Amino acid sequence: MGYRFTSNDNEVRQDLALLTKDEFESGGRGGLEFHSQLSKDRSPKDFVLRIGGVELHDGQNAYTGAKLEYTRNYWKNWISSAKVTGKWKNYILRSALLLKLLVYFPTCAIIVAPTTSLPEAIRGEQNWDYRYSWIRDSSFVLWAAHSIGLEDLESGYYKWITSLYFMLANNLQVMLGVAGERDFGERLLDGLTGYRGSSPVRTGNGAWKRLQLDVYAILLDAVYFSTNMGEEFLETRTTIS
Question: What's the DSSP call for residue 122?
């Protein structure tokens, strides 16, 4: 069993499939509702959200149990290498997991936020699109990861940013897209009400036009943290002048 969702915006038309063995009810405005009493003694509920129409997927063979176990093991193994002690350990580890979740896996770009237009104040208008990679914020993330021994963030980001070097050398922007994009003209999505009525909802961010000369020094900070990984990694280092 499954349900299909289709965007009404022709510019971003996309189908999503919700696969489940449970039956949902109409929730109005194109939404769905499902009510169930959950407890640790009852069997888990499986809900799988995938790109593409329902007909492209077999809802009976989602293998969610095996995938969930694999996911748990991956995150446990990753965070186990962190070198953290003291009373704030749990808070630091949870923060590290969150920062790892902000890494765009295909390129290792580090984004500021996974969604757009989360408001600074409920029903306010300061709702910006931070789904991009700021050089400054990425450097701070690498510094934090390096300080607790999580080195894989550094190597991935270093390879990504140096792969863009010849495009950036003479015009280093404060922010980049996850695939190296440079132009982020803002656009309002008038058909969306925003989080808890906080509109407008935006895509793009005009900050890409800002000139901040300190970004070169901040980039060097990121390179510094990355090249502390060892001699083998240093051999592939690109000189930035």
Answer: T
Q: By the 8 A CB rule, do 148 and 142 touch?
A: no
- Averaged pLDDT in 10-residue chunks for the chain of 241 residues: 71 74 78 81 79 59 79 94 93 95 92 90 88 91 89 81 70 86 88 86 89 82 69 44 49
Query: Which of 62, 94, 111 delimits the end of a domain?
Result: 62
Residues 181 and 108 grouped into a single domain: yes
Residue 181 lies in a domain: yes
Q: Cβ contacts of residue 109 below 8 Å, gap of 6+?
A: 103, 133, 138, 157, 160, 176, 177, 178, 179
pTM higher than the cut 0.85: no
Residue range(s) defining the domain that contains residue 18: 1-62
